[in-house]
C-alpha cells in the first residue's frame, strides 16, 4: 500500500468543521468555493485562510502552501 504523504490539509480543515456545507456556512462562502479550495489544496485569499485556520485550529501556512 502506498501512503500519500502530501495530505490535503484544506480537506482536513474543512472536515474539522463538519464538512463542506457546514464550513461554507461558517465561512460565509459557497459550497463551490469550499470545494475549489479542497481541489486546489489551497485557500488563495489570506483573510479566508486565516478564518479557516482559526476555526479548524490549524496553522494558516498549512492552508496557503504554494503548489
Provide an overview of this structure.
There is one protein chain. With 67 residues, the protein is mainly alpha-helical. Helix content is 61%, strand content 0%. The chain has 5 helices and no strands. The chain has helices spanning 9-16, 20-27, 31-40, 46-56, 60-63. Helix 1 crosses helix 4 and helix 2 crosses helix 3 (31-40). The longest helix has 11 residues, at 46-56. It is globular. The relative contact order is 0.21. The model has no long low-confidence stretch (mean pLDDT 90).
Decide which structural class fits the backbone: mainly alpha
Gyration radius, in Å: 11 Å
How many H/I helical runs? 5
Order of helices and strands: HHHHH
How does the major sheet shape up? none
Strand content: under 5%
Could you give the distance between the termini?
Answer: 25 Å
How many beta strands in the DSSP annotation? 0
Question: Segments where pLDDT lies below 50 for 5+ residues?
Answer: none
Shape descriptor reads globular
Mean pLDDT: 90
The portion of residues assigned to helices is 55-70%
Amino acid at each position: 500500500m502506498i501512503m500519500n504523504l502530501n495530505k490535503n490539509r484544506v480537506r482536513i480543515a474543512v472536515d474539522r468543521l463538519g464538512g463542506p456545507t457546514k464550513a461554507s456556512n461558517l465561512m460565509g462562502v459557497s459550497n463551490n468555493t469550499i470545494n475549489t479550495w479542497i481541489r486546489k489544496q489551497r485557500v488563495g485569499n489570506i483573510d479566508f485562510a486565516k478564518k479557516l485556520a482559526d476555526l479548524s485550529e490549524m496553522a494558516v501556512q498549512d492552508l496557503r502552501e504554494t503548489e
